[in-house]
Amino acid sequence: MNLRPAVWAALATVLDPELDEPITELDFVETCTVSPDGVASVVLRLPTFFCAPNFSWLMVADAYDAVSAVPGVTRADVKLADHHAAAEINGGVAAQAGFVEAFSGQAVAELDELRKQFFRKAALAGQDRVAQPLVDAGAGPEDLAATTLGQLDPSPELDRMRKRRAALGLPHGDDAPLLIDAEGNAIPPEAVPLHLRRARLQRVGIETNGAYCKDLLKARYSHPATRTS
Amino acid sequence: MYEKDGEKYFIVDSHSHFWDASRENWKPGAEQYAKGWIDCFYGYHQLGPPETHWDYEKYLKVTPEDFERDMFIEGHVDYAIFQSTYLKEWYTNGFNTVDQNAQLLERFGDRLIVNGRFDPRDGDEGLKQLEADVAKYHLKGVKLYTAEWNGDSRGYKLSDPEAYRFLQAAQDLGIKNIHVHKGPTIWPLDKDAFDVADVDHAATDFPDLNFIVEHVGLPRIEDFCFMAVQEPNVYAGLSVVIGGLMHARPKFFAKVMGELMFWVGEDKMLFGGDYNIWTPKWQIEGFVDWQMPDEDQFSDYSKLTTATKKKILGLNAAKLYDIPVPPELQLPTTADEPAAPGQELVDNTAGPRA
Prior knowledge:
- The complex is a heterodimer of chains A (229) and B (354).
- By secondary structure, chain A is mainly alpha-helical.
- Chain A contains eight helices and five strands.
- Chain A has two domains: 106 residues, Fe-S cluster assembly (FSCA) (GMP Synthetase, Chain A, domain 3), CATH 3.30.300.130; 104 residues, no CATH class.
- Chain A has a three-stranded mixed beta sheet with strand order 3-4-5.
- In chain B, the strands form three sheets. In chain B, strands 6-7-8-9-10 form a five-stranded parallel beta sheet. A three-stranded parallel beta sheet of chain B has the order 3-4-5. A two-stranded antiparallel sheet of chain B has the order 1-2.
- Chain B is globular, with a radius of gyration of 20 Å.
- The longest helix of chain B has 15 residues.
- Chain B has 13 helices and ten strands.
């Protein structure tokens, strides 16, 4: 059985926590192979040698977990290439150690809160992605404040926003308001314009950062002088 | 000075360097970090127009003659402000120290401003050093890295009591401008160094100091904007914004500029060319020619006027640094004045959409 498509699909569930995009779409997967006896070997790469170790760790650890869970995979071998902390990250993830243990003396906190912080940002940016078409179609503050998720047409953006909210324990069912603040409270009509401004700024921030990372990755892996592997 | 279509622009480049990343300066045993660091910068360099790209070897270290040509002769820059970056663990003589910068001061002292540094964790010794640096270089500004390790400390906040002691001392010594690096950090590894809440506190408690957040907090521009809208003495340093986005990602550049114009305003945005990540020439010429696109997705964003561009490219920074501007190039700006914050935004009442 060819397991590679299943392994690739598993990798597609792994997000860059800050950019909120799958690592497969960001071109962070350098190679992905599966041997006949079920050993999945994955090499990840990032836009720079100094990409933050905490985000890098999350991606390698999540990839390891996702690939290990694919039925038929007997062992996952996930490695990060060309990175200043590659040895600690690769060794720590393979040994199933925590971040703090892998970086003994250099880190004191695990990364759950960091991940949550980015889910909160993604949940806010998602409100702009979902609400923008309604605004373009003429919806005003009263309409938007009264809109619930169940009233919206299905879309990948809506699914994505629901998932981020669910991960944070925020309202995400059909009766949940489209527009909510960081605590999950509905936004009153008079506060809708500025709330949407904030949501759009959040989206611009995340997407600009993503554009930057993609450009740096492309520059890094197309220029011979900076190819360090 | 740059002139286009009969308009004259006084140019202050508020964020530039004169670094030594030559192989001879890579510290033995730390070569991979020294190379990794400059390779990151070289990656950013590729985001400029292809015709401005340099050979890697030239990029490692420029000469004073290169600097003079790229900044002052071809680059239109009237005044440049130097920021320092030490990195002595990786570069034997440091990457970009005050002393290196000061070499150029001897040659171009009438057009260069060297900013200093301090670290509140250095205590009384640090205060003495700051006094000595002010006496020697007549500092009007400092650049601070709040996420740096120092002994057992994993970084500090501008709102710490020791930091307040230094901010007060800096103010008493005549320093007005506090440039704060809020951006990627390498160590400590688990630290999220982008949090700008401490700038918020310090800016409130030191209303006579100006706080310039470099790289506008990228990649967390939203955190910066939410904070800056409430503080009249917080400024957006545009280094990396123009260089990294204007050519490579014009649509994102337009959105970022639109957001900054809305949340921060044209009197509180400062051009920084980030030499020699990029040269200033194409950035200045491109920005003067640039305009917010007409497409629907940008319709909420304001257009830039010639006055907007003049202020961003130099007049705002000139005011912060008391740089003399020829009268025919001058325009009024509220930079360096206690302008009212965007109260309507804080109160949740503004916003043109919906």
